[in-house]
Design goal:
alpha+beta; Rossmann fold; five-stranded mixed β-sheet; elongated
């Protein structure tokens, strides 16, 4: 017997008994995001590698370690590791800057990163997210955060905490980076290899390191003093303060986290994460922020923008199981042709119905009906001759016989 082929490590099948939960999350996303004026966009899962190197940043772990990249026809192609860069590319390429601001887009779909599989995280994983273009005021930041919070609440998640920080603009952030490099210089040789690279290329991402020895260094008082300092310029400070005021007015609970920098290079000013206490140490279910420089960086006109993304596997792991949806009815009959015709009549009227394709014994059909449907529709010789059907409520055990024309209105669907 040949070896059974198995799914690749870090990927998994979404089985029929699980799919109702995915449909619930996707439907809720459509409903909530539509209320805020977001329109769905679907971008390709493959893009030119340069898009992510320029957009996500060549100092990030995503670009350096986690992308699935291959060569085809002398071009370097990458399976998308995230979707903001792809949405920005589409925004530019399709001339969306000519639309009235704000341009609000949302998406769902698979992403790909080569990393160690863990709870709620796979090498092929799925995200749902939003992007808003064209508004520089903190009202956009507040609305995006509110959209994320209300989407999670609509799913039934309430044990949430919003963490907030501001990375400032390039001018005030550069001043902060220089101070951080100066205070860390004596410890440079003690940092991990990745942090030594970040020290030169992107010092802000030092704070995103999860290596324990590096964390001990960053927790030293003289370094914490720099990290916790108020380095924002007046304009960035005003933006941040207004955002917090809007969140307070909207009843969004938040805490400030000076160590929150996010793992992507394109962020500026507002960054945020929404966390759940049910996921252990890897407890972020949503993250995002402002990326005002990315549209210009990828070839478009300078455009303020902000967005967030959520891992759907993580969301689903937090939700209670949903019972798979049963059929409305199952036709029980040993008269296959009549059952076939009747099933099609019912389907055309919106009824979810099946019948026994193999013409098994009547008792076997009735047994299956009790497992998969609310009603058994019995077509015996008498019912067929009189153009009737016997309807059995499989939950209550009650049975009535009616004209076939009246069948659908007698079903409590």
């Amino acid at each position: 017997m040949a070896n059974i082929l198995k799914v690749l490590k870090g990927t998994k099948d979404i089985l029929p008994q699980e799919i109702d939960m995915w449909h619930f999350v996707e439907k809720t996303a459509d409903e909530v995001f539509s209320k805020y004026g977001f329109k769905e966009i679907r971008t390709p899962i493959i893009e030119v590698t340069e898009l992510f190197a320029r957009g996500v940043g060549d100092t990030t772990d995503i670009v350096n370690k986690e992308m699935y990249t291959f060569e085809k026809s002398d071009r370097s192609i990458t399976l998308r590791p995230e979707n903001t860069a792809g949405v920005v590319r589409s925004y530019i390429e399709n001339g969306m800057s000519r639309l009235s601001s704000p341009v609000k887009l949302w998406y769902k779909g698979p992403m790909f990163r080569y990393e160690r599989p863990q709870a709620g995280r796979q090498r092929q994983f799925h995200q749902v997210g939003v992007e808003m273009f064209g508004i520089k005021q903190p009202t956009a930041d507040a609305e995006v955060i509110l959209t994320a919070v209300n989407f999670l609440k609509a799913l039934g998640l309430n044990d949430l905490e919003v963490e907030l920080n501001s990375l400032g603009c390039p001018k005030c952030r550069d001043e902060f980076k220089n101070k951080l490099k100066a205070v860390l210089k004596p410890y440079l040789n003690d940092l991990c290899e990745d942090c030594q690279t970040r020290y030169e290329k992107n010092p802000l991402r030092l704070l995103d390191c999860k290596v324990e020895d590096c964390q001990k260094i960053y927790s030293k008082p003289e370094i914490q003093e720099v990290i916790m300092s108020d380095f924002l310029c007046d304009e960035c400070r005003e933006h941040y303060d207004e955002l917090k005021l809007y969140l307070e007015k909207m009843g969004v609970k938040y805490s400030e986290n000076k160590l929150l920098v996010r793992g992507l290079d394109y962020y500026n000013r507002t960054v945020f994460e929404i966390k759940s206490n049910n996921l252990g140490s890897q407890n972020a279910v949503a993250g995002g922020g402002r990326y005002d420089g990315l549209v210009g960086q990828l070839g478009g006109e300078p455009t303020p923008a902000i967005g967030f993304a959520m891992g759907m596997e993580r969301l689903i792991s937090l939700l209670p199981d949903r019972k798979s949806k049963n059929l409305d009815a199952y036709i029980v009959s040993n008269y296959t042709t009549d059952a076939f015709v009747f099933a099609q009549e019912l389907r055309e009227q919106g009824v979810n119905v099946e019948f026994d394709l193999a013409n098994k014994k009547f008792t076997k059909q009735l047994e299956k009906a009790s497992k998969v449907a609310k009603y058994a529709l019995i077509l015996g010789e008498d019912e067929i001759s009189k153009h009737q059907v016997s309807i059995k409520n499989l939950e209550e055990g009650k049975q009535i016989t009616v004209d076939r024309a009246d069948c659908v209105k007698m079903l409590e669907l």
